[in-house]
Amino acid sequence: MKQKNQRTENPFGFTDTNKRYHTYDYYLRRTFGGKCAKIPIDAGLTCPNIDGRCGRGGCIYCSDRGSGDFAEAPTLSVAEQYARVREKLSSKWSTERCIPYFQAHTNTYAPVGRLRALFEEALAQDGAVGLNIATRADCLGEGVPELLAELAEKTVLTVELGLQTVHDETAKRINRGHSFADFEEGFWKLRQASEKIGICVHLIFGLPGETREMMMESVERVAEMHPDQVKIHLLHVIKNTKMAEEYLAGNYTPLEKEEYVTLVADAIERLPADVVIARVTGDGMADDLLAPEWSRKKVSVINDIDKLLYERNSWQGKKQY
After folding, report:
1. In a domain, 69, yes or no
2. What is the spatial order of strands in the sheet that 98-102 belongs to?
3. 107-160 pLDDT, tens digit each
4. If DSSP codes are grouped into helix, strand and coil, which group holds residue 306?
């Protein structure tokens, strides 16, 4: 008789472990046959809410590297960055499969000719099996959707769109520089360009002024759009940011660990079962993190999410509306 455990009793379909949500690890194994190393690349681009097109200063929580803190210097070529990061990760990842990840700032915010050269150089690197491009939904200008559709014919392409929240009042407070309507327009522009373009939507929990109800509304609106992937982030307070100024002045209180774990479990229950949940928490550069301190123990957070779903006898999509 097979012994019962969390794995054998797991009612969720998109898994072969005890996980009760559609993990990125499961997606990688099903898509590429095993784990892949993500190789962060900084293309030296900027953002429209930094250079003045729609704002200055960037999002209030964003570091100077624009989420590209783990990449090499943008003065290096794509090939040099790829080689250096791959070498650093070789001791951690025993795999030859790599996914170049254009992560820093807005990676479709440049002329199409420059973008094509950057992306094709990345795909030409040894071991590159896919491509991830982080950008904003309001930066899909003339020729960009067509370029992305072309790339999706050559490789497994994921375009990551930072949404963070569906609430325009919060977007203004964090200096996001676009509305939810702008996001929707860009999302559907990508969908129409090619069904082969994988779309990953980013959400942040713990944004200033947001209640649980507001965060769940963001989740539910995204669930209705049915992206291919979702990344859920905790708001980190990073040194030398506008968010850090608010925190140090006593004007912002980060989420507690139990609050965040509960929010993520609630979100998982509301997302369609076939949507890959590519992240349930994240980490900033250790030396630059001001708060919350508990977020440094990422594995503990992930384990607590798994435990809560099991205790609830719940899984991804169980409460999808």
Report:
1. yes
2. 37-41, 98-102, 130-135, 156-164, 198-205, 229-234, 276-279
3. 999 999 999 999 999 999 999 999 999 999 999 999 999 999 999 999 999 999
4. helix
Count CB neighbours of 209 within 10 A: 12
Structure token pair of residue 32: 């590429």
- Encoded tokens for 164: 């963070």
Q: Does residue 10 belong to any structural domain of this protein? A: no
Q: How many domains does the chain have?
A: 1
Residue ranges of alpha helices (H) inside the chain are 24-32, 78-89, 112-123, 144-154, 168-173, 180-193, 212-225, 242-248, 257-270, 298-312
* Residue 2 belongs to some domain of the structure: no
| Rg over CA atoms, the chain | 19
pTM of the model: 0.95
| Range of the structural domain that residue 157 is part of | 24-312
Spell 229-246 as b/e; 16+ CB within 10 A means b.
bbbbbbbbbbeebebbeb
CATH of the domain at 273: 3.20.20.70
**Is 152 domain-assigned?**
yes
| d(C-alpha 207, C-alpha 228), whole Å | 24
- Helix, strand, or coil (residue 198): strand
Three-class SS of 245-293: HHHHCCCCCCCCHHHHHHHHHHHHHHCCCCCEEEECCCCCCHHHEEECH
